[in-house]
Design goal:
Layout (H helix, E strand, L loop, with lengths): L1 E6 L2 E4 L4 E9 L6 E7 L6 E7 L5 E3 L7 E6 L4 E6 L8 E8 L2 H4 L11 E2 L3 E6 L1
Parallel strand pairs: 2-11
Antiparallel strand pairs: 1-3, 3-8, 4-5, 4-9, 5-6, 7-8, 9-10, 9-11
């Protein structure tokens, strides 16, 4: 079992920044991939970024690359998502999730269905 808890969301103005954190506990294996997803009202859950714990490589949704950065923070033992230059269209509930089957599958995944464990989400609201 893996437990995930997100924090750091809030209400900001366009152009502002936030730092979202994901605290993971439980049986975290070295080949786990941690992903950040978001879901806006009335829309499907959308992949945003992922980090492979095995080698710290990162992958991003094209529209956030250059504005969002996912990283492993060793001081806090969290997987953080730094979100800069926020836009109103970034408004959503942001979730972190753990994919523990990536090594068996042989590939990373941007599909929410491949992530077995999820946090409760943190709301990000960006006003113009």
């Amino acid at each position: 079992q893996v437990q995930l808890v997100e924090s750091g969301g809030g209400e900001v103005q366009a152009g502002d920044s936030l730092r979202l954190s994901c605290a993971a506990s439980g049986h975290i294996i070295s080949t786990t991939n941690i992903g950040w997803f978001r879901q806006a009202p009335g829309k499907d859950r959308e992949f945003v970024a992922l980090l492979r714990l095995s080698d710290l490589s990162t992958y991003y949704l094209a529209s956030v690359k250059g504005r969002f950065t996912i990283s492993k923070e060793f001081a806090t033992d969290t997987i953080d998502l730094q979100v800069n230059n926020l836009k109103p269209e970034d408004t959503a509930v942001y979730y972190c999730a753990a994919d523990v089957d990536g090594n068996r599958r042989g590939t990373i995944s941007r599909l929410s269905g491949d992530y077995r464990y999820w946090g409760q989400g943190t709301q990000v609201t960006v006003s113009s």
